Amino acid sequence: MKPRAPQQILDSDFYGLNIQRLLLANNSISELRPLSFWGLGNSLETLDLSYNKLRKVPNEALKLLIKLKTLVLTGNAIQSIGPHELGFMKSLEVLTLDKNPITSIHPSFISGSNNLNLLSLDAIKLDKKLESVAAINANNVKGLSLTRNHLTFLPPRWGVNFTLLTLLNLGHNRLGDVIKMEDCFVGMEKSLKNLDLHSNHFLKNSKRYEHLPCRLHTFSSDSLEGVEATVGTDGSGPEPQQDQEGEEEVTEGSAGARQSRPQPQQD
C-alpha cells in the first residue's frame, strides 16, 4: 500500500527535526499554513515545492525559513507575484518559478533578497511581457533564465537593472534577426560572460552577432552550426566546444512521490 500523498502540512509535522533539504514535489499541496515549517527555521537550506497546486507564493510559511538558500516552485498554479513577496528572504540564492501561469510580476518582489544569484523564469508564457521582468529590482542577480517563453523581441535597454548579470539563457524562444543586438544588452556589457540563444529564429551566421557584448566567455547558438562558441575578450575567434548533457537527480520522498531536481530541457 502506497503512503498517502499529503494535501496539507500540519503545524507540528516537522517540529523537532533537523532537516537541510526538504523535497515535497508532486504532493498535491494547495496551500501552506503560516506554521507549516515550524521548527525548521535554523536548519532548512533547500525547499522543493515543485509540481503541487499552489496558487500563490506561500510567503507566510516561508518567513520562518531564515536560512533557506534554494526555493523551487516549478509547475504550480501561481498567477501573480506581488510587491516584496520574497524580499524578506535574506539568505536566498536560487529561486525557480518555471512553468507557472504568471501574468504579472511586481518589480519589487525580490527587493531585499541581496544574495539571490539565480532567478529562473522558464516557460511562464511571458510572450510580450518581458517589460515586467526588465523592471525587476535585481541588481544582485548573476544568472537569469528565460527559456521557452515565446519571446519574439527584446526591448532596447531591457536589462539595465541586471548590472551584475554573468549568465543569460534566452534559448528556445522565437527571437529573430529583427532585434538589435547593440541595444538589447545595454547595462550588461561589463558583466555578461555566458549567453545562450539556442533554438531561436536567427539566420545562419547572422551578422547581428558582431554586436554581442565583447566580454563573453561562452556563446551558444544553433545559428553557428549548432556548436557552442568560446569568445575571447581579446577578440580572438570562436572555438567550437561539444555540448554536454545534464544529469538528473531523483529522490524518493517520504510521501512516495518521485522527486526530481529541475534540469535544462532539450527539444
TrEMBL record:
> Record's PROSITE patterns?
LRR
Q: Signal peptide: which range, if any?
A: none
Keyword annotations from UniProtKB, A to Z = Leucine-rich repeat, Repeat
What superkingdom does the record give?
Eukaryota
Q: Please give the InterPro entries that the UniProt record associates with this protein.
A: Leu-rich_rpt (IPR001611), Leu-rich_rpt_typical-subtyp (IPR003591), LRR_dom_sf (IPR032675), SLRP (IPR050333)
Q: Where is the composition biased (Acidic residues)?
A: 242-251
Q: Where is the stretch described as Disordered?
A: 225-267
This chain's protein is named Uncharacterized protein
